[in-house]
Amino acid sequence: MPSSSVRPSSASGLNRRRFLLGAGGLSTAFVLAACSGHSAATTDTAATATGKPQSGGRLKIAFWADNQGAFDPNQVYWIETRSLNRNFADSLTDQDPETGEIVPWLAESWTVSADSSEYTFKLRQDVTFSDGTKFNAAAVKTAYDGVVALGANSLLGLIYLAGYKSSTVVDEYTVKVTFNGPNAQFLQASSTTTLSILSPDTYKKTPEQRAAGQVIGSGLFTLDSFTAGQSVKLSRRKDYAWPSKLVKNQGAAYLDGIDVTYIAEDSVRVGNLISGDIDISWPRLPITQADQQQITAAGDSIVQRSLPGISDELLPNVKNGGPLADLRVRQALNKAIDRKSYASTVFWDGYPVVGSSVESSTPSFKSQSALLGYDAAGAGTLLDQAGWTLSSDGYRHKDGKKLSLVYISTSNTAGAQLLQDQLKKVGIDFQIKVVTAAQRTTLEAAGEYDLDESYYTRADASILGATLDLSVVKSAPGTNTQDAATAKQVSAYFAEGLSTTDSTKRDAVYADLQQYLVEQVVTVPVYERVQVAGISKDIQGFAWTSESFLRANDIWKAS
Q: At CA 145, angle to CA 142 and CA 146, rounded to 5?
């Protein structure tokens, strides 16, 4: 799989600003998708760092916003906060961002039952939480039981620990985690920030207290203060000595700490980077071409990496008696989208073109580009076959009705307008219906729409099941994406994928699933999501995690 990239002192960038399809307008049923890939050919600055690492200094980061307002790793879905969580709390395993391999971290080794329903972890014996408490099997049990007890307060935890039965303390440093059935996705889940292991005392707090920052981790930094939406301060833990093998620095952080602020205006954030007031300018949406030029002209760098998980995609409603119940119409819709043009117009020339229902940075990604190519003529033929004929108004009609597809969103973005223009070329009336979040939920439940949107961040292809496996998904818009026969086949793929931890077998299953989803147009991938940040020339050792979060172990300041 491709690696991450840095473009030092280059002027490549965006052609247009924020032409995103439905940016900020996800279904409330998929609010956890805001935890918003492995494409975007990149090289980490960690690989190009020069000189001997120096200790000292505080890393100053300016994020766009904190819309969740929580810090507890077990509850957080907001991706910016998860970058901070990763450097505050550790997990049983870690995941290689280049290969997807799961490697030891707080767990030294593990065994998995033949049916993937039981995981037995042998734990490190030299780890402590920042309050002095020993990390052991009882701490793991307390943590996983605590995540499950959070219920809907841990939206990601509900998925990562789906089917959780129990954790059993075998001995002080051995713990067995048991599920009610096969659950091969759990091994990767054990590497995520959501399943970080916190000090047992943390779980004595209420969810609200924990969200407000009353949490204790075993990580590289400790939490000094957390003011939701305003600031976060972390300080180095001097005795830290148990990172995974994926980092070069096997001891305490080089940095004294991390200071986080939130700046909504891109130009102000970029100006602060150039002036040296901050070290990292980290927006939610990719940095514009003009801003990239300013950053690189000042001698700073642009780093980028695709977010793993579900690509930004449209979810068709096949159950409302509308046009998309016909596979030929869905296939025509798919062919009518010029994804290469979308990527270069909305973002920049060379921006990665989406290639599947999952991002190219996701382990088990299999390109479906051949099935996602632009083919306006082919789309027209399919619509002709489906009985939709082109009229003088430029749109297609059938039985006196115009071929209109209602797309619901909480905002009317230029990205959606670009899709509207592309689909009009084949005679499809793409109607953008702007609604409130509450109205959207109501329309989804009633099935009063044709197209919705979803995306999701996780470095495992099984995440597709969070929206598409109707054996577990019981709410719209997911339930409206498939007829009974399709749903049966899709669920069968997920069941097979959950039955084995063998990476080769899982890759094959999820490759077949990705092809099936595109062929049946269960989803309509639109674009690949990419993290892009501006980095000060003084910062060395920047690195991404497998989920495209910040890994600060190797970061140091050159001056």
A: 80
